[in-house]
Specification:
Length: about 375
C-alpha cells in the first residue's frame, strides 16, 4: 500500500523581526565583550536571513504593554524564567497548531475532520497537557477516538519521522487519514549571552507552524502532492557535543557549535547512502555525486546558510535545487521542525515541478541525527510535457 502527502499548509505569527534590527539590539546589550559583539555581527549578518517571525508581541514596534522579554525603553533584553516562557508557549502555540491543522483540512476537498484517523503533533519548544492534540480534536471536530501521538523535544528533524510514522499508518490501512501538525516557538528561548553557541542560535531561530495530511489514497488528478517512498535515519559519529537541547532555569538551552556545518558535510555522504539503500530507484547511488542529477528537488532543512552551502558543495547541487530552502531561510528563518514542511510546500507548489520527479527531504538535529525521506512529485506538469 502507498502513502501520499498533501501540500503542507503554513502559519506564521503576526510579529515580524528585521534581522538587522535584531542584530543591533543583541550587539548593544550591556556587559557584552568585544568578542561577543563581533560574533553577534558576524552571525546575524551572515545568516542568510532577512526576516523572521515571533510570537512575542512585545518585540513588535507598536507594543506598549508590560515588558517580560524586551524593555524597549531601555533597549534591554530581559531573562524571564522557564515557567513564564512556557506559559506564553501555551497561549501562542495552541492557536497556531489549530490554524495549521484547519488549513490542512480545508485544503483537501475530499477530507472532512471526522475522516481523520490519526493525529501527530510535533514540537520541541514547549509542553502542556492536555496539549495541542487535544485542542485540535475538540476545536476542529475530529472524532474523540482519533489516535493521537506527540513527537516532542526531538529538535529540527522531527517532522520527517512524523511523516514516516504517518506513512506507516497508511501502509497498514489504505483508509488511514493522518493529520501531521508541527508548531515551534523558538524565539521564546532566545537570550543575550557571550556564549558563541547561544549567539548563533539567537541569530537563526524563529517561530512558525505547518500542517499536512498523509493519506492512503492519492490526491485527485492534477492536485499537487507527493507519494512518500522511503525514509532513513543516520547518526554522525562522535558529534553529540555539537548539537543538543536541554531545559534550564531561564528557558530551553541550545548547544549549536560552529562545527555543525562541517560535521554535516563530513557525514552527508553516509547519510544519503543509507537513504538511497532504502529506495529501489536510488539504490544504485554509491556517493553524493550520483544523486545531484537523479533527484531533482532537495528540501534540505535550512539550519543556517553555511549548512546549505556545504551540502550544496558536497552533493554538487545546482543553485536552483536549493532555491526553496534558501528562500524559506531568508524570509522565515529556522523554525525548527516546521521548517522542512515549509520547504516541501514551496517545491510542490512550484509551477516547474513535474509529476514523477523525485524529491529528497533531509533535516538535522540533536545527536547529531540526520533524518531523510524520498518522495515522488504528483500533480505537477507531466514529466514528458
Amino acid at each position: 500500500m502507498s502513502a501520499y502527502l498533501r501540500v503542507p499548509q503554513t502559519v506564521l505569527p503576526q510579529t515580524p523581526l528585521d534581522q538587522e534590527q535584531v542584530r543591533d539590539v543583541f550587539a548593544a546589550q550591556p556587559e557584552r565583550d568585544r568578542r561577543a559583539v563581533r560574533i553577534v555581527n558576524a552571525s546575524f549578518t551572515g545568516s542568510g536571513i532577512d526576516t523572521r517571525y515571533t510570537a512575542i508581541a512585545e518585540l513588535g514596534a507598536e507594543y506598549d504593554g508590560e515588558a517580560t522579554f524586551y524593555d524597549r525603553s531601555s533597549n534591554l533584553l530581559l531573562s524571564p524564567g522557564t515557567a513564564e516562557r512556557n506559559e506564553l508557549y501555551v497561549r501562542a502555540a495552541t492557536p497556531m497548531f489549530v490554524e495549521a491543522a484547519r488549513q490542512a483540512l480545508d485544503a483537501s476537498d475530499d477530507i472532512r475532520p471526522e475522516d481523520v484517523t490519526h493525529l501527530i503533533t510535533v514540537s520541541c519548544t514547549g509542553f502542556h497537557a492536555p496539549g495541542p492534540d487535544f485542542q485540535i480534536v475538540t476545536q476542529l471536530g475530529l472524532r474523540p477516538g482519533v489516535e493521537r501521538y506527540h513527537f516532542g523535544f526531538m529538535g529540527c528533524y522531527a517532522s520527517i519521522p512524523a511523516l514516516r510514522a504517518a506513512a506507516q499508518f497508511c501502509h497498514a490501512d489504505a483508509a488511514a487519514v493522518v493529520l501531521v501538525v508541527s508548531a515551534e516557538l523558538c524565539t521564546l528561548h532566545l537570550r543575550s549571552s557571550d556564549d558563541p553557541d547561544t549567539i548563533i542560535a539567537s541569530s537563526l531561530f524563529a517561530d512558525g507552524a505547518a500542517g499536512a495530511l498523509v493519506t492512503g489514497r492519492p490526491p485527485a488528478p492534477g492536485v499537487p502532492g507527493a507519494e512518500l517512498d522511503s525514509f532513513a535515519t543516520a547518526i554522525a559519529p562522535d558529534s553529540v557535543e555539537h548539537m543538543a537541547w536541554t531545559i534550564g532555569d531561564h528557558g530551553f538551552e541550545m548547544i549549536l557549535s560552529t562545527a555543525v556545518p562541517k560535521v554535516i558535510e563530513a557525514n552527508i555522504d553516509d547519510a544519503l547512502g543509507v537513504l538511497c539503500a532504502a529506495d529501489e530507484e536510488l539504490a544504485f547511488a554509491r556517493s553524493c555525486d550520483d544523486l545531484a542529477g537523479t533527484v531533482t528537488h532537495w528540501a534540505v532543512h535550512p539550519g543556517g546558510r553555511d549548512i546549505l552551502d556545504r551540502v550544496q558543495h558536497r552533493v554538487g547541487l545546482a543553485d536552483t535545487q536549493l532555491d526553496a530552502a534558501r528562500e524559506v531561510l531568508r524570509t522565515c528563518g529556522n523554525m525548527s521542525s516546521a521548517t522542512v514542511l515549509f520547504v516541501i510546500r514551496r517545491i510542490l507548489l512550484d509551477p516547474s515541478s513535474r509529476t514523477g520527479e523525485r524529491l529528497l527531504a533531509m533535516a538535522f538535529g540533536p545527536g547529531l541525527t540526520m533524518e531523510g525521506g524520498v518522495m515522488t512529485v504528483l500533480g505537477g506538469t507531466e514529466g514528458g510535457a
